[in-house]
Amino acid sequence: MQLDIDLEKERKEILNRYRGLLRDCRESISKEDKKLIRKAFNLSVDAHKDMRRKSGEPYIYHPIDVARIAAKDIGLGTTSIVCALLHDVVEDTDYTLEDIERLFGSKVARIINGLTKISDVYDQNVSMQAENFRKMLLTLSDDVRVILIKLADRLHNMRTLDSMKESKKLKIASETSYLYAPLAHRLGLYSIKTELEDLSFKFTFPN
């Protein structure tokens, strides 16, 4: 019985966060935009339905919160919000890039592809010099929204890093301070840069 109550509570929380996302969108959002965001939200909920984060929370909290950062803190529009909601779908679930293109068009598919490529490139080039990696990130994506959504993704991961094991925390925190904070600075996102630095410092030098 407890499980049913918890699932019901989680369902309510997912809807609350979704409503929060709509509130965080620009005021000028049209009915069509809302439909598109709802479609991406529904797909993301379905794709991640059996997944949980290390904290035990439903995985879907993450893409919704990344979309909220993209909308509220970075001021991005509908296409980016849709991409933020879908940013882990191709990497982590059975949906393919072709599915995304069929359902949301080539622009969204291109951005999702860019986000997936960044993860691949980073995994293969872990020892690359930070400056070279930042340059490569900027050239890798012909659309700056790829980088902006990646920064929103990283910021949310840093805000929820507590549930990771110690070695992973340190790796992600140091990567954030030498890679993502300078990137945020370069793109003029000064408050995000500061928050990324503060959070990195908290995990790298807890004392």
Structural class computed from helices and strand pairing: mainly alpha
- Portion of residues in beta strands equals under 5%
Number of H/I helices = 11
The average pLDDT value, as a whole number, equals 88
> Helical percent range?
over 70%
Please summarize the sheet with the most strands: none
Which parts are unreliable, with pLDDT below 50 for 5 consecutive residues or more? none
Spell out the helices and strands N to C.
HHHHHHHHHHH
Number of strands: 0
- Quote the distance from N terminus to C terminus: 43 Å
Query: Radius of gyration, Cα only, in angstroms?
Result: 17 Å
List the helices and strands and how they pair.
Blueprint: H1 2-24, H2 31-47, H3 61-73, H4 78-86, H5 89-92, H6 97-104, H7 106-124, H8 130-140, H9 144-159, H10 166-186, H11 190-204
Structural account:
The chain is mainly α. The protein is built from 11 helices and no strands. The mean pLDDT is 88.
List keywords for this structure.
single chain; 207 residues; 11 helices; globular; mainly alpha; 75% helix
